[in-house]
Specification:
Blueprint: H1 9-15, H2 23-42, H3 49-58, H4 60-74, H5 82-98, H6 103-126, H7 132-150, E1 155-156, H8 160-167, E2 170-171, E3 177-178, H9 180-198, H10 200-210, H11 212-217, H12 222-248, E4 250-251, H13 259-269, H14 281-301, H15 307-331
Antiparallel strand pairs: 1-4, 2-3
Helix pairs in contact: 2-14, 3-14, 4-9, 4-12, 4-13, 4-14, 5-6, 5-7, 5-12, 6-7, 6-12, 9-10, 10-12, 13-14, 14-15
Amino acid sequence: MPTAPRQSLGTRVRRFHVDERYLPVLGTVIVLIAMLAIGGSLYENFLSGRVMANVLINNSFLVVIAVGMTFVILTGGIDLSVGAVVALSGCVAAWMFSHGFGAAVAIPLVILVGTVIGLVVGVMVHVFEIQPFIATLAAMFLARGLCYIVAPESIPITDPTIVALARTRWGTEDGLVITPSGVIALAVVAIAFVTLHYTRFGRTVYAIGGGEQSAKLMGLPVARTKVLVYVISGTCAGLGGLLFAIFSRSGYALTGVGMELDAIAAVVIGGTLLTGGSGFVLGSVLGVLVLGLIQTIITFQGTLSSWWTKIFIGALLLIFVVLQRLLVIRRR
């Protein structure tokens, strides 16, 4: 009886092919699993539901900011203003609450602050053809300066609605909890995922990152999309600032210093190419979780300075940037 020829090991390996687009994200997943394994082996209760939930809860604002940053970087741009917009949104929220504005009025206006700044940046980048680095740097200085005008000193938030939101926890008996901020962050991720992968706008975002001139030749709405990605980033920064204000129950002008770098690091570690055109919003979420786990491991360790967080993040970022560069060279 004839038998089917056996395939060689080399043939089977060649058939198991991973799309190069997913390689950076796969690297992020491997790093995440390795960190969970290391933390779980070194520290008791590290893998408990409470600790894992706290990683998401404590970084929910950064998840939202990283989502907005993903849209911008996918087009080949950058947004350095998000940290200052976070601070400005928090200061405006605290000022409004301290002057008797209710949550129903203050919350939309606070988010609108980020939207307006994002719109201004988008117009500067597209209409006036200013480099994103310069346009967002100018917006960063503007927003940070406005923070000191709105709130020269830290303003506590005592609004009953915000206090109730900050204290709300939904959880199980084993310690797995979620907060309103965490739910909002997950909702933003879901909306961004659908937008990027199942809408014409999302396809245009990827097309611009792959080649702006080619996108124009295909008849895609490049101008509108380039402006809208900065509007989305600004809106996410405004919402992130509100979530951080709820988390800290205060508004402070120095909030968010360096947060734009954390967001960029999370997006890059999550597999989005800095040159644009390739990346996933879920990868950015994984990048935020990696940053959160680094901080958690150092906290559990107890003897290391918090600056070691920056050192490890910098090392990871360098590795992923080199990996991205190698992938780009290989494609060419």
